[in-house]
């Protein structure tokens, strides 16, 4: 199946954080591709990736980067597709540098920024975006949400017994 979501990250060192996005997409059987694309070390690759993504059939791009995390914003500037940004926490500054580098975009160039290290939510958000025009996925997301509610009810019950 052709990938509908692209997961890219600035370095292979981001993968332990970003893997959760892939896991979430796999749970919903959404085909995806994964790659390392750096805004600083592989500038031309980044431009080509972002500029060709829509024509290649991608519908959402999940981007993760740490530190001076310019990848999400640059990709958003180069593609009309929705871009989700994952601030990857590094050794210093607890990921605040990554978050602030990604979240404060200028008007006109949105990046849907999730929490520091929040790659699972990035995957789930991509499913929701696809689900807006895919009834099957939308129903599965509703079931997933019902499952969360059920889980909390069971934990609540267990606490009181
Ligand atoms: C960023 O620099 C990457 O996204 C990564 O989070 C960080 C460090 O990269 P490495 O030095 O581990 O390759 O561009």
Word description of this protein:
- The protein has 161 residues and is α/β, with parallel strands linked by helices.
- Helices cover 48% and strands 16% of the residues.
- The chain contains six helices and five strands.
- The protein has helices spanning 15-27, 43-52, 71-78, 96-103, 119-131, 135-160, and strands at 5-9, 32-36, 60-66, 83-88, 112-113.
- The chain has a five-stranded parallel sheet with strand order 2-1-3-4-5, with helices on both faces.
- Helix 1 packs parallel to helix 5 (119-131), helix 2 crosses helix 3 (71-78) and helix 5 packs across helix 6 (135-160).
- It starts with a strand and ends with a helix.
- The mean pLDDT is 98.
- The protein binds 5-O-phosphono-beta-D-ribofuranose.
- The site of 5-O-phosphono-beta-D-ribofuranose (RP5) has 11 residues, from strand 3.
List the secondary-structure elements in sequence, H or E.
EHEHEHEHEHH
- DSSP strand count: 5
- Outline the low-pLDDT stretches: none
What would you call the shape? Answer: globular
Bound molecules: 5-O-phosphono-beta-D-ribofuranose
Number of continuous helical runs:
6
Give the radius of gyration. 16 Å
Q: What's the CATH class, please?
A: Alpha Beta
Helix content: 40-55%
Family: Belongs to the AIR carboxylase family. Class I subfamily.
Catalytic activity: 5-carboxyamino-1-(5-phospho-D-ribosyl)imidazole + H(+) = 5-amino-1-(5-phospho-D-ribosyl)imidazole-4-carboxylate
Pfam family, one: AIRC
EC number: 5.4.99.18
Based on the model shown, name its key terms.
single chain; Rossmann fold; 48% helix; alpha/beta; 161 residues; five-stranded parallel beta sheet; 6 helices; binds 5-O-phosphono-beta-D-ribofuranose; globular
């Amino acid at each position: 199946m052709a990938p509908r979501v692209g997961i890219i990250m600035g370095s292979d060192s981001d993968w332990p954080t970003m893997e959760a996005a892939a896991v979430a997409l796999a749970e919903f059987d959404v085909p995806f591709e994964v790659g390392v694309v750096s805004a600083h070390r592989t500038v031309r690759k980044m431009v080509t990736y972002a500029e060709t993504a829509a024509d290649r059939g991608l519908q959402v791009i999940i981007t993760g980067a740490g530190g001076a995390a310019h990848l999400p914003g640059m990709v958003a500037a180069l593609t009309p597709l929705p871009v989700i940004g994952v601030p990857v926490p590094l050794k210093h500054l607890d990921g605040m540098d990554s978050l602030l580098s990604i979240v404060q975009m200028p008007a006109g160039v949105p990046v849907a920024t999730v929490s520091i290290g929040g790659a699972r939510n990035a995957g789930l958000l991509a499913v929701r975006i696809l689900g807006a025009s895919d009834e099957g996925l939308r129903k599965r997301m509703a079931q997933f949400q019902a499952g969360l509610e059920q889980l909390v009810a069971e934990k609540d019950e267990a606490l009181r017994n």
